[in-house]
Structures are given as C-alpha cells and as structure tokens.
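Re-run requested by the PI after the first attempt was lost when the workstation crashed. Everything re-entered from the original request form. Ligand of interest: 2-bromobenzoic acid.
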Amino acid sequence: MEKKERGSRVTHVLLLPYPSQGHINPILQFAKRLVSKGIKATLATTLFITKSLQPQESLVTIESISDGYDVGGFMEAKGIEAYLERFETVGSQTLAELIEKLNVSGHPINCLVYDAFLPWALDVAKGFNLPGAAFFTQACAVDVIYYHAHKRKLSDPVAILTVPMPGLPSLEVLDLPSFFAVPGSYPAYMELLLNQFSNLEKADWVLINTFDKLEIEVVNWMDGLFPVKTIGPTLPSMYLDKRIKGENAYDINLWKPDNGTCMKWLDSRAIGSVVYMSFGSMAALGAEQMEELAWGLKGSNNYFLWVVRDTEKEKLPSKFVEETREKGLLLNWSPQLEVLAHKAVGIFFTHGGWNSTLEALSLGVPLVAMPQWTDQPTNAKYVEDVWRVGVRVKVNEKGIVSRDEVELRIKEVMEGEKREELKRNASKWKELAKEAVDEGGSTDKNIDEFVAAILSKESI
Ligand code: UDP
Ligand code: 7WV
C-alpha cells in the first residue's frame, strides 16, 4: 500500500472516540478509511475497554488512555456528571502522555481527530501545536439544532423552535432532541451536547458522519460557519463500495455477538419475512414497554429477531419465550450489519440511533422508528418525513407504545400499501450512500482533501 510519507516518516493520525459503541464504530471505521489512503492511524480508547479486547489483526493500532474509571468504565461512576468531569481531568492528562509517548516512538502524531463530545481534547492537541478535527457522530441536522441552542443559550423547547434554523424542515417539540422536550430532565447530557460547540471555532476541520445528499441543505448551511467535511456513512467498505478488501466488520464489540445461530436461523427464513428489532447499546426500556413490544411482535405474526441484552431479559413477560419459540429468536447482541444485509430481513424496528439509521439507509431496509431519547426523535422525523423510508410509532397518554400500535406499524411497513414506496426510497438511499463513498463520490473526495490538508499542514 502506498504510504503518505515525508522523508521516511509516515503521516500519523490519532483518533479519540467517546467510549460507547455508537461512537467507537464510526470513528474506528473512519480510521480504516484513512489507512486505505496511506495514513497511519491509532485509536486511543479507555483502558476499561482496551483490557477487554481480544488481540486481533487490525488496520488500526489501539492504544489506551484513562477516563479515570479503569475498573468499571461508565458503570463505575456516580452518574454522567461525575463521569464526564473525571474523564476531562484524567483524559486530558493521559491523552497528552500518549501523544508524548508516540512522538518519541518514531511515529510522531500529525493530527488529532476527536469526538465532538470531548472538546477538551482539542485543547490537548493545540498544546502540542497539532491540528485538530472534531468528529460528529450525530446527524448534521441534530448538530445544527444544538449549535443554535448553544449560540443563543437556549434549552427551552418552545424558544428554540422560534429561532430560524435554515436547512431544517419544520419541526415540532417532539421532533427535537429529547433533552429539549423535557427541560431540565438531563442537564449534564444537555451540557455535553451544547459543549460540542464550546471551542469549535478552533478546530481545523469539522468531520460529520453523514453524506452530502442525505442532508444537503443543512450541510451547506453549517459549511458556511465551520470547515465541514462529510465523511460518512462509515459502514465497512464491503457493505458499500467494496474497495477495501476484507474490510467487512466493526472491529470493537463491547458485547459478544451471537453470529452462528442467528445467521443460520435467518438463512432458513423466506425473503423479507423477518422483523429485526433492536434498541441499540444504551436504551433500557421499562418492563411495561417491553411487555407491549413483546405482545405486539407476537400479534403481528411475523418471524422476528429481537436483541434483548441479558440484563433486560427479566422484563419480558414470563410466557413470551415459550409462546414464540417457533417464531422468534432473542439475542444478547447481534451482528447487526450482517443481519440488516440479509435478504430475509423485511424491516428494522429500531430506536433510531444515528448509526442504526445510517446502516438501514445504506442497506436499503425500511424502518419502524421508536425513538427513546437524545437525537433519536429528530432522526425519526427525517426517517418518516424527509427520507420517507419508514414510519414513527405513536406514544399513548401514558408515554407507552401500545401492543396494538406495535402490531399496526409492523404490518404497515411489512405488508401495507406504503411498503413499496418505502422500499423504493430505501433502495434509492442505498445507492446514494454507496455513490458517496465510492471513488470520486462526495465522501471519498472529502476524505482525500482531509488527507491532503494534513500533509500540507505538516510541511509548513
Ligand atoms: N449494534 C450491534 N449489535 C446489536 C445492536 C447494535 O452491532 O445488537 C451496533 C449497531 O450496528 C450500531 C451500534 O451498535 O453500529 C449502535 O449505535 P446507534 O447509534 O444505533 O445506537 P446507540 O447504541 O448509540 O444508542
Ligand atoms: C453516549 C452517552 C451519551 C449520549 C450519547 C452517547 C449519544 O447520544 O450519542 Br447523549
């Protein structure tokens, strides 16, 4: 592979994700794209995560920093406030130590790509006189809503909706990221999201895991404020352009996927006959909601694959597993990309996390969106009304999605009159996602420009 060299030195990019599944996947995938373009890439993640990883061949080297919770990670902290505070203090220091170590190792760092959730990392980079690129793991539309709120110091949902937000569709309170809908509900999370913009004017680049055609109006608008480059969707190359041989999976799984059983089970199902249901890595639903989902799934009378982590299983109705043995399979953690790419899967019933949404769009699978919190309501709004690749469930007066609603929405997307249109639109986005990352596409060009820009900064 051609290496981008200056003298005998290889250009070396250090990447720092927020340590959750939904943040590690995209940044690590982006790192692999950089490697395919001749860059050396190192991922810095927390010791709590690195010590649980099996050694494996990877295009990207993994190094450890500390969030101050080496034993239990986030679960060890007394809540998000304590976690973020200690992460900033211990993280800043251990990130600086890592950069120093790498600088004397013969492969000095030329650029830091950091998760926009961790703006202090940019200050660390600047302390070494290094260029820094913020990496946004949420939709550009969501980022822009937080930008307006940050700029005007607004967290009130009605107030934010009176602000002109060019590039966005007309939104209602329930379409906003959840931290607005119930003001004061999660102040530390709200601050985390708003703080993405606290020093962003100092970032040399703003990378966003999206692609131009998906949200062109809002991307163009944000590009007028910051040096934006869309670099997504960050699915493994084999699911899109297939230009990077063997690049077919996310390398870090915080849970062990149940590959064998699940894929064999799918192989024996008819085309488009399976409902795949998953709420991502973080959501924990209430027992009543789990029960409604369970009976709604059963009532729809389809085959289903449902990711219910072991810690959530006790919330299932006692007879459910027994009564649906013929129809369904429960998994602790799925190989989600393989599942979504399988022809037996007819719909994706999802919380609509940004990675899951991009994966469904990129693999052409229609959705039922059941947003839980954070950016998921806004993603659901786009799924239903902008990209028109799925429907959003309605919540009843008790805040629950009833079994009838679950059944109705599944049937609507699985066999209703909307199905053909949703499938057509999903196929269209699949093509456009592939086009963006393929040779000469918008994402491909942006990554080339990013690589060229790091090289030119280096030679100054
Ligand atoms: N994922 C997976 N197996 C599962 C559930 C999720 O591999 O059983 C992956 C999924 O493909 C996605 C990520 O975990 O890349 C979840 O990210 P997302 O943004 O959708 O949701 P979050 O977990 O951050 O809420
Ligand atoms: C991890 C922790 C907190 C949040 C997220 C991930 C997210 O929305 O991506 Br708010």
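Saved to the shared folder this time. The pocket of uridine-5'-diphosphate (ligand 1) is lined by residues 20-22, 25, 278, 280-282, 307, 333-334, 336-337, 353-356, 359 (CB under 6 Å).
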